[in-house]
Predict the structure.
Amino acid sequence: MQRDFPQAINARSSLNRVGQGRHFLQIPGPSNVPDRILRAIDFPTIDHRGPEFQALALRVLESVRPLFGTSGPVVLYPGSGTGAWEAALVNTLSPGDEVLMLEAGHFATLWARMATRLGLKPEMMQGSWREGVRADVIAERLKKDSQHAIKAVCVVHNETSTGITSDIAAVRKAIDSAKHPALLLVDTISALGSVEFKFDEWGVDVAVASSQKGLMMPPGMGLNAVSQKALEVSKTAKLPRAFWAWDDILEANKKGFWPSTPNTNLIYGLAEAIDMFNEEGLDRVFARHKRHSAATRACVEAWGLEIVCQNPAEHSPVLTAVMMPEGTGGKSHDADAFRAIALEKFNISLGMGLSKLAGKVFRIGHLGDFNDLSLIGALSGVEMALGLAGVPHKAGGVQAAMQSLAKTA
Ligand SMILES: *Cc1c(COP(=O)(O)O)cnc(C)c1O
């Protein structure tokens, strides 16, 4: 055991090499955790059944709601986004229920696999990994379901594997236009805090989020925002649930407590993150992300490389997924070899291609605690690494990003 500790320190210092400045963590989550949040977390853990914690929890449970755009309850779990996915399903559905899911990327596919494991019957509608979820296709499918066998529509707001953001308001309109009672469950794990989300206005029933992406925190907290309709449905939903059960947690939350031990220090972090969002103003946070996304798009286009997201209106404010150009023998240049060079030479971590995009795509995260010069630094690292890796591209990408930023400064 004693030997593990120095090794862990070594692993850290290899990314924060002395004299080389900070590591650039440009994967689309976990995102860079601002010092303010690290300092807020770095306080003694207190009694989670005591008055000090109670006051903090009551404040956080209230002030987290505007991040989702809701006046209703938000449930916080020690766990990751995957746990909060499970919570959304097990609280609202019964064994054998049909759920409509959209095959639009890696995470949508994983959520469907989880639904199958839980004993649900996901119907996976074929989608493209190059565009957002098609609301018209959902409307058409729901209109055919005259028996209302489909109990929920599950969509990913920001597909982190492709860098594409889907129009959730349009999905709600599609459900309503089909006069269908299905619940709308939305994975906004990588978008919350970076992309506008209007839970109440869009008529979302459960929103799933986690701490380590747009919320700027370390991993370890999963969140569910819950509508009145979802709460009603949960009273008769029959999937087994224990740790994830909303009712016990919401009951304890009324007094500022949890049934089991909450992640006290991450709750300090969330309180700080909420303060930071409020100081900047959520509208400005969202505008900042869109601006960085547009500059990144200008950069990649100037390199002459292809962006996975074909429709600029759907380009994620959180990340940009870039296709590697064709190499020899009909195969694309190796995205992972390129990422390894970027890490080794410039101390920058880029996101890998996931499932069917593995090796063919790299992803640039531009979310969370981020500014113009951090973006230019990150893009410069990518441009230099493209050169070193021998990936064909045109010069001038970073220049184009700087022009894009200066124009809107
Ligand atoms: C990261 C991510 C997940 C998985 O969340 P974990 O915190 O890794 O469990 C699910 N969906 C989306 C869209 C994500 O970006």
The chain has two domains: 7-30+281-407, 35-278. The longest strand covers residues 150-156. DSSP finds 16 helices and 14 strands in the chain.
